[in-house]
Amino acid sequence: MTNDCHSLGQIREKMVDHWPEAVTPACDLVTSVARLSDLLLAHSRPTIASHGLTSSEFDVLITLRKMAPPYELTPTALRNSTLITSGGLTKVLHQLEDRQLVERQDDPLDGRIKRVRLTPAGVNTAESTLAEILSADAAMLNQLISNNALQELNSALMKLLAGVEAQVPR
Length: 170
What we know:
This protein is mainly α. It contains seven helices and three strands. Helix 2 (25-50) packs across helix 6 (120-144) and helix 3 crosses helix 6. The longest helix has 26 residues, at 25-50.
């Protein structure tokens, strides 16, 4: 058996042929959203790499940049906000510290905790990398779907996501 990557249409066609009862609107939606997410992440990887970052490092930088100044979190909060394991996060933080993109600060309320803070270079790297990714994504999407259709799709997905978030415990 090969590990060939198949288009969503090919995947759906195989399901229709071999597992038709699993082909439902809900299954189509979940599969489509997951596939779109995978493809957009793959589309962003060259830009992330061109900034000398791994996907995990970029995840940490943008997670910190989403915070109010001074753009910092505890390691636990950072781990809970990313898809990086505790051990993996430690490695990523050391790499980012070595490149002076983040720094560790003593927590004023609990000396056992070292907060993770973006440096000015980290802020610049996060912002410039994300700006390039957003520009490339917009250029690609604008060729595929109208701005109005994109806004309608986004609105429908946000409404659906809000409902699912309200029902699924985290």
